[in-house]
Amino acid sequence: MKVLNVGLVKGRHNLPVELYVYNEIKDVLDFDALLLGAIKFFKEHSNNNQIEYNLYITGLTPATIAVIRAFSLTANEGDRLTFYHYDREADSFKKQYGFVVGFDSKFNFTYLI
Predict the structure, then answer these.
(1) What is the mean pLDDT of each run of 10 residues along the chain (113 residues)?
(2) Pairing mode of beta strands 92-103, 109-112
(3) What strand order describes the sheet that includes 51-56?
(4) Distance from CA of residue 22 to its chain's centroid?
(5) So what's the pLDDT on residue 32?
(6) How many of the other CB atoms lie within 10 Å of CB of 88?
(7) Contact (Cβ atoms closer than 8 angstroms) between residue 50 and residue 61
(8) Contacts of 74 (CB under 8 A, 6+ apart)
(9) Is the CB of residue 100 less than 8 Å from the CB of residue 88?
């Protein structure tokens, strides 16, 4: 499984990532633009193989929700979306399991949390 460490928005915080979903956000309340940007990110990085996206959250709830929605629309079977949140007291990131995409025995699309 390929692992991608991804930051939510470039330039907001120093993150241990190679990629960002958004290089910039012009209007955090333009929900359609946020969703389209996140869909574009997932389509550019999907290769029809299983990918684990480790998403480092930097605030901006509308952007985070757009990423979750885009993942649900574009993910391939076996893809994972895991969240990392900064813990000030520990000065490190804390993992929060998100989603694994799969299909049930009748080939219905499912998300496992």
Answers:
(1) 93 89 95 98 87 91 96 89 93 88 54 51
(2) antiparallel
(3) 19-22, 2-9, 51-56, 80-87, 92-103, 109-112
(4) 11
(5) 98
(6) 6
(7) no
(8) 39, 42, 43, 46
(9) no
